[in-house]
Amino acid sequence: MMKIITSAQMQALDRRTITEAGIPGKTLMERAGHAVSARLEEVFGSVRGKRVTVLCGKGNNGGDGFVVARLLHRKQAMVHVLAMASVAELTPDAASMYRQFTRVAGTSRTRPYSSTEPVHTLIRGSDLIVDALLGTGLSADVSGRYADAIDAINGAGRPVVAVDLPSGLHADTGKVLGHAVRAAVTVTFGLPKLGLYLNQGIDHAGQVTVADIGIPPSFIDEVDSRTTLVTGSFVQRTLPVRRPSSHKGTFGHAGLIAGSVGKTGAAAMAAQAALRVGAGLVTVAIPSSVNDVLEAKLLEAMTAPMPETKARTFSRNAFERLSAFIAGRTAVAIGPGLSTHPETVELVQSLVKQLAKPAVLDADALNALAGRASLLTECKQPPILTPHPGEMARLEPDATAQSVNADRIGTATRFARERGVFLVLKGARTVIARPDGAVAICPTGNPGMATAGTGDVLTGMTVGLLAQGLPPWEAACVATYLHGYAGDLTAAALGPAGMVAGDVIAQIPHALKACHEG
Ligand SMILES: NC(=O)C1=CN([C@@H]2O[C@H](COP(=O)(O)OP(=O)(O)OC[C@H]3O[C@@H](n4cnc5c(N)ncnc54)[C@H](O)[C@@H]3O)[C@@H](O)[C@H]2O)[C@H](O)CC1
Ligand SMILES: [K+]
User: Fold this and answer.
1) Which residue ranges have their beta carbon within 6 Å of ligand 1?
2) Which among 85, 250, 254, 465 would be 20 to 30 A from 35, CA to CA?
3) In the record's cofactor note, how is the cofactor described as bound (predicted)?
4) Cα 99 to averaged position of ligand 2 atoms, centre (Å)
């Protein structure tokens, strides 16, 4: 995992690196510029012959921009720099990089930014735009020429690469201070900043990559941050290993308590997802009258028909058999498609109270706990809850989906600590919290996943990893990352509008393979 930090923490790391590790600020700036230039070509291809407009602020963010301009000029891009400040107003490092740029490109390649038609035309005529106006030094609402520049960038409808942060975005809160650049790609330096993963930060940052610019790891270890980013390397080293001697039993037996009349699809998708993420065996406990329907949908997964109500949902008479069902599994998931029939709600509450297996509680199991979250402290093992904001609001007194989304990290951290559970608060971006107060943010996923059933898929993937022996924290983080990764592969292949949950299931093996290979 990678620590996520605030701009103040980044600035302190910057200062320590320069003063204690003796790495000059200009070296950091040069490395930052190289990282942006490399990422720009990785995403958009060779810059040779392309018109690239670099907008540079008066601080070190602007300084990074002058480095990018010089590097792209050397790669035969047609670079123009629009400077917000005269060289006399620049920070010393930025001024030095400005002079290095004009030395190789000539002063004709740079001009002062002005809110005039020729400048706007130049921006609109770019193939690519580099935003080096403001970074962690942003300290007030953007106005005046900076606001005009940001609006001109956004109005040009051209791909934008943001240096460290999209200008105008608050590094700690992800809030837009008046005006903010909408970037296709953001290259942030040292460590990820919280604002890139919160609120409007997600829309404005685009694809975020973190560039290593040589901050000493010991300094990073000393930063006090309880928030981390789930990374591909964390997933790669945490995924279960399949040794040649492995057999079905090695990968556990996942049990699902799911489904009711009209909602067998949720059970089927969760079961398929559990198998696709590598569980050895999967059995679905299902109300008896819809058992045959479910069997028709499933090949590899088994089913266990259970006593039901007249409404064809789990009945309280299923309690003993479901308790034995849970005892016979490596891990269980309760919830997809259960319905909120009063008898089923009562049954779920009784099962949760005596849970003594690694477990996932989702969907209608969470709805059964509405107003009864105190039952969770009776679980013998802390379960993983996977609410979306609406389900989260029902678990919390006086909460709404809006109030949950207004403070996603705080809500998830508080609930996980108070109830002693692992909490996956779904949404953009998904937040994973654990009983000791630590919290992780998942960088994968996209709006195409806002479609019926993707929650059931995540539930299946999570219980599938629990069944393979991953502890709850690792299972929750890895399942969420893989789920979002499979969703990203699906959106890339089918487009975000037309994709459905079943397509995400089909991409799970590809996401797994990509994460294994690193
Ligand atoms: N390890 C790293 O993170 C590195 C960071 N670098 C880059 O440096 C910037 C931070 O530079 P700084 O000079 O502190 O501030 P900015 O360049 O972000 O801001 C410039 C300047 O702008 C003024 N300002 C603040 N708010 C506004 C506003 N609303 N409107 C207009 N002007 C505003 C304020 O005076 C600032 O000083 C960081 O983001 C990185 O890009 C290093 O160069 C490389 C290593
Ligand atoms: K910027």
Assistant:
1) 10, 14, 28-29, 32, 57-64, 91, 134-140, 142, 146, 163-164, 189-190, 213
2) 85
3) Binds 1 potassium ion per subunit.
4) 20
Pairing of strands 302-306, 110-112: unpaired
Distance in Å from the first CA to the final CA of the chain: 14
- Name the closest-CA residue to atom 13, ligand 1: 59
Backbone angles phi, psi at 189, to 5 degrees: -105, 145
| pLDDT on residue 397 | 86
Task: Summarize pLDDT for 79-115 with one digit per residue, the tens.
Answer: 999 999 999 999 999 999 999 999 999 999 999 999 9
Return the residue whose CA atom lies nearest to atom 40 of ligand 1.
61
Of 241, 298, 238, residue with least CA distance to 268 = 298
The neighbour count for residue 86, using CB atoms within 10 Å, is: 11
If you average pLDDT over residues 7-21, what whole number do you get? Answer: 95
The sign of the CA dihedral 456, 460, 466, 470 is negative
Q: How many CB atoms neighbour CB 338 within 10 A?
A: 27
Indicate the CATH number for domain 250-517.
3.40.1190.20
Q: Give the type of residue at 186.
A: T
Ligand whose nearest atom lies closest to the CA of 91: 1
For residues 165 and 59, the answer to whether their CB atoms sit within 8 Å is no
* Burial category of 103 from C-beta neighbours within 10 Å (exposed 0-12, middle 13-18, buried 19 and up): exposed
The answer, yes or no, to whether residue 167 has pLDDT greater than 80, is yes
- Expressed in angstroms and rounded, the spacing between residue 510 Cα and the centre of ligand 2 is 34
What six digits make up the tokens of 483? Answer: 């789920």
pLDDT tens by residue, 188-230: 999 999 999 998 999 999 999 999 999 999 999 999 999 999 9
Other CB atoms closer than 10 Å to residue 398's CB: what's the count?
6
Query: Residue 228 has which token pair?
Result: 């981390």
Separation in Å, CA 181 to CA 7, 8, 130, 146, 210: 18, 21, 10, 10, 18
pLDDT one-digit tens code per residue, 490-505: 999 999 999 999 999 9
The strand pairing partners of 169, in sequence order, are 176
Distance 168 CA to ligand 2 centre (A): 8
Residues 6 or more apart in contact with residue 494 via CB below 8 angstroms: 448, 503
Query: Is it true that the peptide bond before 429 is cis, omega within 30 degrees of 0?
Result: yes
Which stretches does DSSP call E strand in 364-466? 384-385, 422-425, 431-433, 439-441
Measured from the CA of 133, which atom of ligand 1 is nearest? Answer: 17
267 pLDDT more than 80: yes
Which pLDDT score is estimated for 231?
A: 96
Domain 2-223 fold: Rossmann fold (3.40.50)
What mean pLDDT is predicted for residues 468-476? 98
